[in-house]
Amino acid sequence: MDHVRAGAACLSTRRLLLCADAHVPVGGTPLDYEEMARSCGDLHWAGEATNRAYPCTVDGAHRTGEREGAKVVRKLRQRLRGGNVLARKQRDRKAAGVV
Ligand SMILES: Cc1cc2nc3c(=O)[nH]c(=O)nc-3n(C[C@H](O)[C@H](O)[C@H](O)COP(=O)(O)OP(=O)(O)OC[C@H]3O[C@@H](n4cnc5c(N)ncnc54)[C@H](O)[C@@H]3O)c2cc1C
Fold first, then answer.
1. How would you write the pLDDT of the chain (99 residues) with one tens digit per residue?
2. Residue 57 near ligand 1, beta carbon < 6 Å
3. Where are the domains of the chain?
4. CB-ligand 1 contact for 50 (6 Å cutoff)
5. Atom of ligand 1 at shortest range from CA of 50
6. Of residues 28, 37, 24, the one with CA closest to residue 67
7. Is the distance from the beta carbon of residue 53 to the nearest atom of ligand 1 less than 6 Å?
């Protein structure tokens, strides 16, 4: 993670600083993390709360960013390939005199 800048703060001196972390509530299951990670169409979710294996950590959050980034790249590649196939079919139809 050499591209991530890190900083430190002494939280014990900050009277108004509050914190929150994702947690599985009573009645929930660890599978809830996976539900949180489920993409909605082209909308992707990253962050520690979407990482069942490493929740509540910077490392876990970072991994989910890479996970979702990879999904987006995969989708874009598929769409580009699909677009190329469509363009080729149109060219073939034109060449064959079919409009
Ligand atoms: C006091 C404390 C100490 C910790 N110590 C450690 C540690 O030592 N090691 C470790 O690995 N982890 C530690 N953690 C946990 C770690 O900080 C988190 O798990 C990690 O930062 C989560 O990253 P994230 O990207 O999921 O969410 P966040 O870092 O919370 O990022 C979410 C971002 O979304 C922004 N946001 C929220 N709502 C909106 C909105 N409506 N519109 C636009 N932006 C919005 C927020 O401002 C925030 O910048 C600590 C956490 C706390 C609170």
1. 444 555 566 666 777 766 667 888 899 999 999 999 999 999 999 999 999 999 999 999 999 999 999 999 999 999 888 878 888 888 889 899 886
2. yes
3. 28-95
4. no
5. 26
6. 37
7. no
